[in-house]
Amino acid sequence: FEYFKISMKYVSPNSLYQLGYCYNEGIGTEHNLTKAFELYKKAAERGHCVAQNVLGYLCENGEGTEKNLKQAVYWYNKAADSGYNKAQFNLGLCYQNGKGIEKDEKKALEYYKISADQGYLKAQYQLGYCHEEGIGTEINKTKAFELYKVAAEKGNSWAQNCLGCLYEKGEGIKKDIKQAVYWYNKAAEANNGVEIAQYNLGRCYEHGNDVEKNERKAFKYYEKSAEQGYLDAQLQLGYCYNKGIGTEIDKTKAFELYKIAAEKEDKITQCVLGILYENGEGTEKNLKQAVYWYKKAAENGNEVAQYNLGRCYEYGNDVEKDEKKAFEYYE
């Protein structure tokens, strides 16, 4: 830290960047994002492309400075023009999502490709995703498979999960469940395992998809995924507790998990939560809450909830009896 501070006399862009990094990470000094921002800015203004990219990130996220998406794009652009692959990727994201600049999926694709050609793994994955979903280009599952495979073999865990999905569905490649499970496993067991891969692996173990059926393993992977906030896994984990799949039946735990998913606007879980409140399963019986969750689910288009709400209005279950409303919901 002291060495980089002294070298500021010579206004070396790299010294400015390194000193900013020390303040950013709290190396040899206290963590100070504002000071880090100031130093990164000085280095960026002197053409340091890594500092320019970091400055873009700080402007994008409002760290050490006020959030300013236009400035973020400006600095990403400067670094991208200098050939820095991370900045090219970040600029691609800005174009794809219309952050700080007019949305342009074709330009996003161009920047992902430039970055990917320089070997940046995240860009290789993102380029594969664009070909899979038709972002800035026509859908091409074969091309998506090829790009995911390159990134997956180099350790990109999101690409590993996507590769597993393509193998499972037989899209862009011949269907191969063994390979799907292999890649799901790689992604699920990576550092900070991919929550979607953990969920997918749970599915394979629950149903015995080219692995020996193992409900305990399925439960373990659903639990890992749910802990990372993946909605489908939270729903499935609730179902496991409700039915005793891979664990003992625990209606209270099932209710808690369904409530988390319902609050995230999942219409199926909202309906299930209404049923649990109506029947007093995993919680005290509460018809007011049952009606509330049936209404939420019905508004989101859940047919079972619409029927259940119709029943409530027909018989006056904690709502004023209203046969016309009942008819509307039945209809």
Automatic annotation (TrEMBL):
Pfam families in the cross-refs: Sel1
Protein name stated in the entry: HCP-like protein
Coiled-coil zones: none
Domain of life of the organism encoding this protein: Eukaryota
Gene3D superfamilies, A to Z: Tetratricopeptide repeat domain
Classification via SMART domains: SEL1
